[in-house]
Amino acid sequence: MSKDTKGAVVVEGRDIRRDYHVRGGLFTPARTVHAVKGVSFSVEKGKTLAIVGESGCGKSTLARIITLIDPATAGELFIDGRKIDIAAEPLTPEMRRKVQIVFQNPYGSLNPRQKIGDILCEPLVINTDVKADERRERAMSMLKKVGLGTEHYNRYPHMFSGGQRQRIAIARALMLNPSLLVLDEPVSALDLSVQAQVLNLLADLQDEFGLTYIFISHDLSVVRYIADDVLVMYFGEAVEYGSRDAVFSDPQHSYTKTLFAATPRADVESIRARLTRKNAA
Ligand SMILES: Nc1ncnc2c1ncn2[C@@H]1O[C@H](COP(=O)(O)OP(=O)(O)OP(=O)(O)O)[C@@H](O)[C@H]1O
């Protein structure tokens, strides 16, 4: 994790499409859902692209394509400059570990029967031949990086608060030194004050290690804080895509204008007051 290659494009999607074929029922005909309709984007090393939109607009589908969980119906995906054809090739562990994901629910995403140390070491056990001593050392060091003490190594997830669990999920995602972290509504399940702490942690980790994020959210105040670029999705299409400041100050599409008008200014101001990121505009 270093900032040396900042500026290089880590992930790029070109005209990504995803259709779902839904079988017909007794009274309903078969149909095709066009969940993602030709979305293009790119994210440079050390930057954050926020993907915003209301429920059903295709955010999760796009996230599953970017995290190499599902194939696209059409389009091209490049990670670290390499074209990925998830439908045609079995992905090597090396490709799989380039993209990691943190989910919304820190309660559901950690195995309650595993100690924190085992949760953190598991990706190394599965994907690498790093020896046990080294695994432990790396897990201890990662705990410190996410603001948790090494005494937590032998504890179970139920012994932690929601914010601490999300720190553990972030630590696990970083154990394989990924090129890209996809954060799928990572703070929406947390109390507001804890949201601010986790967002600050993400910002600090990014500043320190040059991490690259795709941040999926419906919360504009959070997006305004965390994003460098913003992509707004509406019914599967990217209706707005540009720098955070350009999108927020001069939204072009009528949907974006409505979305922004629906977010009370006070919400944006209050979350900014809780956050300490240096470049929060
Ligand atoms: N497996 C599937 N089969 C059929 N249709 C699907 C499937 N998955 C998603 N869809 C449809 O694709 C569209 C986009 O869904 P998606 O889950 O990507 O939206 P989203 O923006 O992430 O919503 P949410 O925030 O509620 O998760 C929706 O119309 C959804 O019903």
TrEMBL record:
Record carries keyword Ubl conjugation: no
GO molecular function: ATP binding; ATP hydrolysis activity
Keywords associated with the record: ATP-binding, Nucleotide-binding, Transport
Major localization listed first in the record, in broad terms: membrane
A cellular-component GO term for this protein: plasma membrane
Coiled coil: none
Ranges annotated as spanning the membrane: none
Pfam families for this protein: ABC_tran, oligo_HPY
Similarity section: Belongs to the ABC transporter superfamily.
Name of protein: Dipeptide transport system ATP-binding protein
